[in-house]
Amino acid sequence: MLGVLAGFFVVWCIILVGWFVGRQRILGDNARPVLSGLTFFVASPALLFETLSKARLREVFAEPLLVTAVAAIATATIFFALVRFWLKRALPESLMSAMSASLANSANLGIPIAVYVLGDASYVAPLLIFQLAFFTPMFLMILDSSTSTHRTTVLGFFLMILRNPMIVGSGLGLLVAGTGFQVPALVMEPIHLIGGAAIPAMLIAFGMSLNGTRPLQASAGRRVDTLLASGFKLVIQPALAYVFARFALGMDGHALFAVVVTSALPTAQNVFVAASRYQTGLTVAKDTVLITTVVAVPAMIGVALLLA
């Protein structure tokens, strides 16, 4: 238990450094997008490649992947029905709100949590692969069909998935693990060094993003939607993951703890990117990202205490 709390302490310390750096504008106005770009396109794919190349495929594509899929899809479905038929929101906005309530930040916060709290980045791989290869494209395809401003073909979605650097890094790592190929040490060393930049850069960029945003403004008129989405993301989704993993699959110990913690990750920041693209659900997406991001680490500490 002390090791888990120590892991959260490390994560929060680096986040606070990022918050301070952003508040003092030490790195300038463009630092956060530069750090985010570095982690997304370069460092994270390298880290995922190295981690998954050494992973056991049974552990990546077994129960954790199923738990991730069931909890996310169930959360999105229940919340969509709630927003669509109780709050009477339009179909595109209901879809975006469901996305806000169920799509986790598997990279920017998921990878550091997996490394420092769970002990291995491979614990977040099932969530990352499920979201990037299936869950996010599914949402975007439905949004495309329900709006007239953007249309993307099925081929376009497959190309979008294949061009995602995290999918590429994960796919190559899984290929190496599956074939048993030994990557030469001379090749793996620079990959290891580049991947080492991912976690501190992610957390510093994340801390910088916490400056200057005020959620739940009365003028936006979506307080109920935002609070419900935040509650579903931080409470309902990990609860569903726990019930399914514990009672349907019989998981326990560290494996159970890992799937519940990864399900309690905050809303992914690319939900707001999608909301901006489709011009729907902007307030709920932005505020849910911020609220769940701030509350997520204390919520995951609560999960750790409950499952200890």
Query: How many helical elements?
Result: 15
Tell me what portion of residues adopts beta-strand conformation.
Answer: under 5%
Mean pLDDT: 83
The general outline is: globular
How many beta-strand runs?
0
Element-level helix/strand string: HHHHHHHHHHHHHHH
Separation of termini? 6 Å
Give the topology, please.
Blueprint: H1 2-23, H2 31-53, H3 57-60, H4 63-85, H5 91-102, H6 110-118, H7 125-146, H8 154-163, H9 165-179, H10 185-195, H11 198-208, H12 223-248, H13 253-263, H14 270-278, H15 282-307
Tags for this model:
76% helix; 308 residues; mainly alpha
Question: Care to describe what's here?
Answer:
This protein has 308 residues and is an all-alpha fold. Helices cover 76% and strands 0% of the residues. It contains 15 helices and no strands. The chain has helices at residues 2-23, 31-53, 57-60, 63-85, 91-102, 110-118, 125-146, 154-163, 165-179, 185-195, 198-208, 223-248, 253-263, 270-278, 282-307. Helix 6 runs antiparallel to helix 13 (253-263) and helix 14 packs antiparallel against helix 15. The protein is globular, with a radius of gyration of 19 Å. This is Permease.
Structure described in brief:
The protein has 308 residues and is mostly helical. Helices cover 76% and strands 0% of the residues.
